[in-house]
Automatic annotation (TrEMBL):
Residues 1-147 form the Calcineurin-like phosphoesterase domain. This is Phosphoesterase. Keywords: Metal-binding. The lineage of its organism: Bacteria, Bacillati, Bacillota, Clostridia, Peptostreptococcales. Belongs to the metallophosphoesterase superfamily. YfcE family.
Length: 157
């Protein structure tokens, strides 16, 4: 299973569509918030399989603030990250993912890509396709799950 991950599109569908074109065939797209509505628009335009969560800039009742997905025998924790203070430390995110029995934690919010393995947990932030920060470039994430093995990468636009 090939999963594309984007975050922090902030109304920039052009950046999101460029990322999608660069991903090639994916089985699932995950949008990690800021702007939830962009995920809805992408789903309508592309008729794609998309899972979305809300970020700190998303208002209204639509969407969840965090989700756990069971895919290919693994559990993925999805959050925008602001509730876990990811700009300060990844500790709260890490322990919440472990508490939920997850092998993968995906977050956004910082606009800075991150792809690390901490113990048995993969922690990935795809960065932002629209407003990169911290000297990074616009980017997205890719995860492949094959026979229980996980590979992950950050790709710049």
């Amino acid at each position: 299973m090939k999963i594309g991950i984007i975050s922090d599109t902030h109304g920039n569908l052009e950046g999101a569509e460029l990322a999608l074109a660069k991903m090639g065939h994916i089985d699932l797209l995950i949008h990690l918030g800021d702007y939830y509505e962009d995920g809805i628009r992408l789903k309508e335009r592309l008729n794609a399989n998309i899972v979305m969560i809300k970020g700190n800039c998303d208002r209204g009742p639509q969407g969840e603030e965090e989700l756990v997905l069971d895919l290919e025998g693994l559990r993925l924790f999805l959050t925008h990250g602001h509730q876990y203070e990811v700009k300060m430390s990844l500790n709260r995110l890490y322990y919440r993912a472990l508490e939920l029995g997850c092998q993968i934690a995906l977050y956004g919010h910082t606009h800075i890509p991150e792809n690390i393995k901490k113990s048995e947990l993969l922690i990935l932030n795809p960065g932002s396709v629209a407003q990169p920060r911290g000297g990074s470039r616009a980017s997205f994430g890719l995860i492949e799950i094959r026979e229980g093995k996980i590979t992950s990468e950050i790709i710049e636009l």
